[in-house]
Amino acid sequence: MKLYSLKNGVNPRRVRIFLAEKRLSIPIEEFDMETAGHKAPAFLARNPLGTLPVLELDDGTVIAESVAICRYVEEMIPEPPLFGRSALERAQVEMWNRRMELELLLPVIDVFVHTHPFWVGKRRQIGEWGAARREQVAERLRWLDRELEGRPFIAVDRYSIADITAQVALLTARGALKLSIGEDQPNLARWWASVSTRPTARA
Description:
Elements: E1 2-6, H1 10-21, E2 28-31, H2 41-44, E3 54-56, E4 62-64, H3 66-76, H4 87-115, H5 127-147, H6 161-175, H7 186-196
Parallel strand pairs: 1-2
Antiparallel strand pairs: 1-3, 3-4
Helix pairs in contact: 1-3, 1-6, 4-5, 4-6, 5-7
């Protein structure tokens, strides 16, 4: 297997953390935004959308989209279970991972794309949309703090892909957007301290 990744990319980081949690070491080819190798014809033959990450299997089969890649790895390496053990846990992890994608990760990415200087001239920026999404991120952090009261992790009583999704969202929010966890969000701060000090956190 081989993973095609993007330096500092949010979704590629999700997969790299997942692989690290599974203790799976595979070759990784890194692209970067400046050279845009993932937009070259050779890569577009693998994934016509030109998005990353992409997992290429030994037989040439290509799996794109971060959660699809993680699901494949979960099937191949069930331990530790990052999608849940039982039918109920798998549903809970699916529910919370989707919430973390829609309510936190995607708004964070929108703020980054529509307000950060890095994207000037690269993507069409709509400042009002970025500002609105920034307000949504701040509100969702307060919501997640309430949800985490009395809970060590987001979906079930163990670290899961839902935590990974929220983790990379907050990492981007803190780093690129200067959006930090508020002093009035102790549950979120406790959770962040736990997940960000895991050995896999900077995979």
